[in-house]
Design goal:
With 56 residues, the chain is mostly helical. Helix 1 packs antiparallel against helix 2. 88% of the residues lie in helices and 0% in strands. The radius of gyration is 14 Å and the shape is elongated. The mean pLDDT is 85.
Length: 56
């Protein structure tokens, strides 16, 4: 099992990867898909934050 600290670091590196790809990408369809992926990651993080907030 991955510790939450390590899991957070992995998630941040994935986010940086997506942002870098968005910056470099020229193909419109690929940019749209990267934006959709990034949006899903943000929504997932918001759900997790809200879940943790309610538990505390």
């Amino acid at each position: 099992m991955i510790s939450s600290l390590k899991k957070g670091a992995i998630g941040m590196s994935i986010d940086r990867f997506i942002i870098k790809k968005l910056d470099d990408c020229q193909e419109e369809r690929t940019r749209i898909n990267l934006l959709k992926l990034f949006k899903l990651r943000i929504q997932k993080a918001e759900k997790e934050a809200n879940k943790n907030y309610r538990i505390s």
